[in-house]
Amino acid sequence: MKKRLLFSFAIFCAVVNLVAANDSTNTTPKKLVADPVNAGLKTPSGFSASIVADNLGRARHIVATEQGGIYVKLERLKEGKGIVYLKDADGDGKMEINKTFANYYGTGIAIKNGYLYASSDQDVFRYKLDDKGNVIDTENPQRIVKGLWDKRQHASKSLALDDAGNIYVNIGAPSNSCQETDRTKGSKGMNPCPILDSAGGIWQFKVDLADQSYHNGVRYATGLRNVVGLDWNQQQKKLYVTMHGRDMLYTLYPDMFDTTVSAELPSETMYAINKGDNAGWPYVYYDHFQQKKILAPEYGGDGKKTGGENAIDPIVAFPAHMGPNALLFYTGNQFPEKYRQGAFIAFHGSWNRSPLPQEGYYVVFVPFKDGKPSGKWEVFADGFSGTGVVKNPREAQHRPCGLTQGPDGSLYVSDDVKGTIYKISYPSK
Amino acid sequence: MKFVYIVTILLTTTAFVLPEEKATVVQAPLKASIERGKTIYLQRCMACHQADGGGVPRLNPPLDAASKVKGNDKVYLVRVIIKGMTERVELDGEYYDNNMSANPDLTDMQITDVLNYIRNSWSNKANAVTVAEVKAARAKIK
Question: According to DSSP H, which parts of chain B are helical?
């Protein structure tokens, strides 16, 4: 039965493709025909989605050049390379691999003032770009940061750059809640948490100094468990981040929380960051139902006691465990007015809500005005998982992980399961 | 080609050990142990390893179809449960980033039960673990 269904679907696709191909011969040949199935995604009315590249490997963060190429950072080397450079040389709307390089895997990638920046889980490198957006020397990048903590857990190093010659690097805490023995029932929270000296925050470095590390970097913000999405907001001249909240309230404290509460708490949080800010991890977590910072049970909390009086509050709180892996402020003018200056967030999708169904696996939009959220968040692009409800994470066929804005104002989304790159556009007609 | 090779090996191995397993699976004590193990699994293990034993790609390894879980190195399995896991190790060609909880408070009986559950759930079928084996393993890893 399943086979027959598949077969019918294949025929259906073939017919749709034929129709699409015929259509395209009647219009300008180089113009991309709208994907009949919208790349399998559900997008708001007026938007269209297509797949521009596929099977790249574990595509984490992505960045578009001014000329429309895209650099993709891979989390695992593919044929020995960790960065893929995509270009649409023939203008058919699909991108081809122009080059692969870099002998390190990782997550972070960004472009600023003629340089490509990319991270391994310990170091940050930069490559000079030519006036076409190509890396001039793929073999000899300048290592600008080295020796950051890589202790497996939360080891990815995300990047953002300001206009004043600084680069911001997330150093995730290799811990769930800074217990003496990580993720272990009955183990106390360390106080003060020694991890915060070297991780659990955002560090600031200079873009043009070689081999910086902890001794000459600035701990720009602390109390951030694991930030994977971060972006420098040009309009506000400020850093914004999305944090992965803690896991396992029920598993570690079954007397205090049930599986439902543990699935719904704590919030995944978005913060506007000023230099010196503390977001409160591991001592507190955010509860979007009570709209309070709650003392973590490892530090004497009971789900009600508040804490973190000196810690900042999030500007947006999302449902628990959805994994906000990329943050992008939209600065283009292709999308309608409502989207301009607003934030897109790629949610990788949860694993820590079991036995409840998982959540996330979509791209969210948050409207902004003057650097503050001006309305409720909404799902912008859904359907990446390819299944209605994800019960177990391995069922998801695609998981959104990176975002970038093309020079024409289109939004690109990367997927780190199959290495698919999606393009979402708002056609003028 | 490699796939065919692996399948052949799997088939041969399965055929080889099947008679013994069949004998153990029908034993009432094992069935009861698996049932008790499921309760422990739901409280201690499911959050990370998931209800279907599939784990979380790149974070928490699957137990379903995992060679180590189905394998005969029971001392290794007991050690992982008691001590947790913090090293970067390759499991069936993949790496996993999250630390695993230590469970030093579980009794020999509880460890036996949860091992019998994970070794005989989903697609897994392996021979029974006994309390005596867990006790001996615990003594070795101290």
Answer: 2-25, 28-40, 46-49, 67-70, 74-83, 108-119, 131-141
**DSSP H or E segment with residue A25:** helix A2-26
CATH number at residue B108: 1.10.760.10
Nearest chain B residue to A255 by CA distance is B43
State how many domains chain B has.
Answer: 1
Say if B14 falls within a structural domain.
no
Q: Return residues 236-255 of A near B (CB < 8 Å).
A: 247-248, 250-251, 254
Q: Give the model's pLDDT for residue A354.
A: 87
Residue type for position A281? W
Residue A1 has pLDDT above 50, yes or no: no
pLDDT at A28 over 60: no
Asked if residue B123 is part of any domain, the answer here is yes
CATH for A32-105+225-425 is 2.120.10
Q: Which is nearest to A233 in space by CA: A77, A389, A80, A366?
A: A366
Closest residue, chain B, to A155 (C-alpha): B97
Give me the domain span that covers residue B83: 23-141
Q: Which residues of A touch B54 (CB under 8 A)?
A: 392-395
Confidence of residue A355 (pLDDT cuts 50, 70, 90): confident
What is the tens place of the pLDDT at every residue in B10-43?
A: 444 444 444 444 444 446 799 999 999 999 999 9
Give ∠ CA A109-A113-A119 in degrees, rounded to 5.
20
Residue B52 lies in a domain: yes
Dihedral, CA of residue A399, residue A416, residue A229 and residue A216, to nearest 10: 160
Q: Which of A185, A175, A181, A151 is nearest to A244 (CA)?
A: A175
